[in-house]
């Protein structure tokens, strides 16, 4: 699996204002910015992504995804400053 | 006792418990090592379960919290999160707040 593939899978789970995925084919690191995270605590945000990727994680097709940041557009904008 | 009951008992009896790969002294995964380091930095006593030593717990813990990966941290019986969430909550100071009353004991 490539970072581009992982990025596309995540984009199918939720609409992303911004998404970055890096990785070596086994471990991936994602920064995900989506309005859908609004009102959700950190654990709930991670669950949205983990649940959406469940079949790929279970099958081992996707070995490990580390979420560096899961942000709302407002939180993302604040970080850019 | 079923595996789920065993886990429920472990997280209830230990105010801070980490399910990890390896032991705190010899972690066998970078993410588990990072989780141990965070708890050590917080200066809180914690129990650790080496899931590599018990296949039933290794599978059971993923079902218990409906969480696909290890490490997993529980504080006062509640699932806190995995490695990424621990890092973020530690950086923001929230994790220190969650264990503040436990350190005083």
From TrEMBL, chain B:
Entry binding sites for [2Fe-2S] cluster: 29
PROSITE patterns assigned to the protein according to its UniProt record, in alphabetical order: GLUTAREDOXIN_2
Pfam families associated with the record: Glutaredoxin
Domain Glutaredoxin: 16-80
Keywords: 2Fe-2S, Iron, Iron-sulfur, Metal-binding, Redox-active center
GO molecular function: 2 iron, 2 sulfur cluster binding; disulfide oxidoreductase activity; metal ion binding
InterPro entries: Glutaredoxin (IPR002109), GRX_PICOT-like (IPR033658), Monothiol_GRX (IPR014434), Monothiol_GRX-rel (IPR004480), Thioredoxin-like_sf (IPR036249)
Family: Belongs to the glutaredoxin family. Monothiol subfamily.
Stored NCBIfam families: Grx4 family monothiol glutaredoxin
Name of the molecule in the record: Glutaredoxin
Organism: Chitinibacter mangrovi
Gene giving rise to this polypeptide: grxD
């Amino acid at each position: 699996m490539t970072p581009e593939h992982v990025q596309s899978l995540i984009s199918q789970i939720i609409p992303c204002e911004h998404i970055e995925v890096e990785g070596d084919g086994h471990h991936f690191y994602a920064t995900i910015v989506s309005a859908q995270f609004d009102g959700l605590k950190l654990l709930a945000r991670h669950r949205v992504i983990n649940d959406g990727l469940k079949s790929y994680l279970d099958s081992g097709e996707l070995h490990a995804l580390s979420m560096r940041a899961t942000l709302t557009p407002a939180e993302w904008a604040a970080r850019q400053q | 006792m079923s595996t789920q009951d065993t886990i429920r008992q472990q997280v209830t009896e230990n105010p801070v418990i980490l399910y990890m790969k390896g032991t705190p002294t010899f972690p066998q995964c970078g993410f588990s090592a990072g989780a141990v380091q965070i708890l050590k930095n917080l200066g809180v006593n914690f129990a650790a379960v080496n899931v590599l030593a018990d296949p039933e717990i290794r599978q059971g813990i993923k079902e218990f919290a409906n969480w696909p990966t290890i490490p997993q941290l529980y504080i006062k019986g509640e699932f806190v999160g995995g490695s990424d969430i621990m890092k973020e909550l530690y950086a923001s100071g929230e994790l220190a707040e969650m264990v503040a009353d436990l350190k005083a004991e």
